[in-house]
Structures
1.
Amino acid sequence: MSENVVHITVRPNGPLRVEGHIVLKDADGREWDLTGKPAISLCRCGMSDKRPFCDGAHARNNWVCETAPPDNLT
């Protein structure tokens, strides 16, 4: 069962790091080929030229975002 676990880490002022068995689909259900990739980084800032993947644009543009959930998260 643990091999089905996907871990998502919110990086400080950066992307979402996704690790585990990943199936990534677009809005039409087409899958990205992630063969050989045990982890990917997904853009949170919206500035990446390679969305949905991170290309480091957050750092080049000094993007800042909290990494901890708000106290009222349920």
2.
Amino acid sequence: MTDHKKLRASGMAAALALALGLAACGGEKTDVSKPVEELNTSLKATGVTLDCPKEVDGGAGTDFECTFKGPGGDQKTTLTIKKQGDDLTVDGKDQKQFQTALEKSLGE
């Protein structure tokens, strides 16, 4: 291979590596609106709602912040994206903290 071809090949390899690295840095985005909506449906009778982002950077295992809003005031909580079969769900990262935040938001 001539020096010109070697230089061109190594330049293409570097460009490909950079493109792959940028794609990996871009990360996965997950729409959590449906599982959050399901939680809010189950909370409806309590007068409390869970306010979360619609989309989260990351997939299964990613933690994200939400806020319970209710008659007892706003309470922050952390949810985790979980995988159940082929479906993604959300649940409290720390069940005790999740329950405490819900109870405070209820005014209990």
3.
Amino acid sequence: MARLIYSGLFKYDSEGKISPDLATSYDLSDDKTTYTVHLRENVAWHDGEAFDASDVAFTINLLSDPSFKSPLRNNWQGIATSVLDSHTLQFKIDTPYAGFLSNLIFGILPKHLWNAITPDNFSLNPLNLKPIGTGPYKYDSVQKDSNGNVVAYKLVSNPNYFTGKPYISKMTFNFYVDEDTALSALNRKEIMGIGGLSSEKINDIKVQKSTAIYKLDLPRYFAVFFNQTKSVPVASDEVRQALSLATNRQEIIDKVLDGNGHSVYSPFLPGMIGYSPDTAQAEFNVDKANQLLDEKGWNKNGDGIREKNGTALKIHLITTDWGELTQTADILKSQWGKIGVQVNIDSLSISDVQENYIRPREYEALLFGQVVGADPDPYSFWHSSEKKDPGLNLSLFGDSISDKLIEDGRMQFDSGKRAQDYIDLQKIIATEIPAIFLYSPNYAYPVSKNVQGIELKNLISPSGRFSDANTWFIKTKRVRK
């Protein structure tokens, strides 16, 4: 919804590619460290005030200020922002970074309204509920229940939107306590769409004839990440290799996602720079897995559990209590049990997993997901500097060789050379097996067929489904007067 209200310098279009939004163009210096961005002129905020470069600089200052605790703060460390004139900004970075333009995709705030708000009062300001932006839609009203919970939020079209007034005059967002309640409302035709329906719920749509179901790819994957410092078995190369051989990804996709997803074998997904089907594959062969463990001295005891030198092949698997992941964990337990592995599962709340397991890295194996974004830069997830919190290297992977491939790849503007760096990185990951990559689920987006003009092909984030909402229209028909 924020995407409808706020505009950014750039945005992801319906194909998931970066395109200008409030910016019109940019220039890049020969040394690839200075970006000069040119802004649209005659853009107005929803309250009629003029938008200019000072609003952009103000927003970036908020993002980079630790007092505001923005999740985007790390994107702006070591970057110097200058306002050259009212419609031109310059960004200087220390070293070339091929994915820098993705840093410029964020909602711009109006300086004239937020300038006097302190960090302590920022999250409580009424403008969070009644925002002012430059996007195609603007705030109209909000409805709350007796407990103060928002149940409906209404937007109306912005007649002064810089690419023209949207075709649909208003949009109302209803909020429900759970997915089943929202689905029931869709089946009663009380609403015209649901953002992100679980795969197993798609067949529960009773109005399928009048509903278009968009099944879109998101740059995300789910995997089992191994912490080799916490377990003797998972620190053994042959155990991780055997687990990989015993993992039937298609069974998980069919049973958990009802077929709505695709297998994943590396942190690089189809369509990304560096994705290679030749390097991003893993064999499924239970017999070979058993043979490997036999040869390496992991013998089965009377209970069918393998042991070696007094160490049982037991793995403690942590995941969240989200339905799809608990089902996946149960299937993995069954699959790995066929090669003599005992899997003990703990399904916990997301907050518990994050605070007590991920942050201190207190797990042997972690079934979790990662959203990688549009640019394939794997630094945050796989560089050795990110092994400790707040880093996201959940497998504690990396050495000087893999680090250099990651560092060179993010500075390489030649797509062919960048792809080769990432292919070489995938080969290392495939050999060391720091994680077992499982699947990437489709993003299911059911919308009434009365809504026309939706041209979505690829999403970078769920909010991207509104990237072309200003050109949507309600199905019409000719009538004779």
